[in-house]
Design a protein that fits this description.
By secondary structure, the chain is mostly helical. Helices cover about 40% and strands about 5% of the residues. It has a single domain (about 5-140), classed as YbiA-like (Tetracycline Repressor, domain 2, Orthogonal Bundle). It contains six helices and four strands, in the order ββαααααββα. The protein is globular.
Length: about 140
Amino acid sequence: MIHQFKDEYRWLSNFYPCPLRFRGKRYPSVEYAYLSAKSEDKAWKRMCMEGVEKPSTMKKKSQYVALVPNWEAIKTEVMRECLALKFSQEPFRTWLLDTGTQYLQEGNTWGDRFWGVDLETGEGENHLGKLLMALRQQLAAQ
């Protein structure tokens, strides 16, 4: 089992640098692409594309952007789309496949119980880990 996306598994993190083209625009990582989709604000999207501020800073700032009206309904699909773009590239594709059948858990210390598992409480839905495992299965079947 991979408990956290750090150290030798840091590349599983959405913060890990991985340029990708998402909906016609280039972003420096999955996190920036995902955050850009939260709002239609052009200045926000430009900030995400430029990647000048750290992903953690942008994540905090995203709490204050005007969300697209259906964000809660689409956020998981947006993440799936971003992850597919990252893991269609090498070496990320091979690295993900090399995790074999290990359970992937986005263990965290910041209390995210939707995308990951709060390591302090052991609670969380681990949607990011589940999306990665489903993507890994799809890639292995190709």
